[in-house]
Write a structure and sequence with these properties.
By secondary structure, the protein is α+β, with helices and mostly antiparallel strands. It is built from seven helices and four strands; from the N terminus they run ααβααβαβαβα. Strands 1-2-4-3 form a four-stranded antiparallel sheet, with helices on both faces. Helix 1 crosses helix 5. The model has no long low-confidence stretch (mean pLDDT about 95).
Length: about 170
């Protein structure tokens, strides 16, 4: 399958089978994140792989009670390092949120290629997630995703038309 095919195939999954994920499949998903580009190749990230049922249940609460998160056999928590990144992107910002997002997207696309479902979780209480997982104060939680085999086929939610999102030569 080509990259564009995988991108078209990938949808947010909110129902998961309890089937475990083979270790070789998980490692390919994580390898995709490891290979992601980052500013100055600093790779300012760490991924926490959560398999423990009790910890996943606590994460549900920290993620505004999104129950489906704990259905998946794994939850992946993407963390960024604000003090270990390129500090002058665009000459006004640090690169870590973008770097982590790129790595997370690589992970999500490889998961789709492997037949796994994901759902980018941005609705969470960072302080609670950090407390549950022992994330240091100087590290930021960027996003979470459940990872597992889909229990259903999500609906296509559509996308904007090309002419709504691009312009040529100058901002219009």
């Amino acid at each position: 399958m080509g990259v564009l095919d995988v991108i078209r195939k990938r949808k947010s999954v909110r129902k998961y089978k309890s089937d475990s994920i083979p270790e070789d499949v998980l490692m390919r998903v994580l390898e995709a994140a490891r290979l992601a580009p980052s500013a100055k190749n600093l790779q300012p990230w760490k991924f926490i792989i959560v398999k423990d049922e009790k910890i996943k249940e606590k994460l549900v609460e920290a993620c505004l009670n999104q129950r489906f998160i704990a259905e998946a056999p794994i939850v992946i928590v993407a963390c960024g390092f604000p003090n270990e990144c390129y500090a002058k992107q665009g000459r006004y910002m640090k690169s870590w949120p973008i770097d982590v997002a790129i790595a997370m997207e690589h992970l999500i696309l490889q998961a789709a290629e492997e037949g796994l479902g994901t759902c980018w979780i941005g609705a969470f209480e960072e302080s609670k997630v950090k407390e549950i997982l022992g994330v240091p104060e100087n590290v930021k939680v960027v996003a979470l995703t459940p990872l597992g085999y889909p229990a259903h086929e999500p609906k296509d939610r559509g996308r904007k038309k090309m002419e709504e999102i691009i312009c040529y030569d100058r901002y219009q």
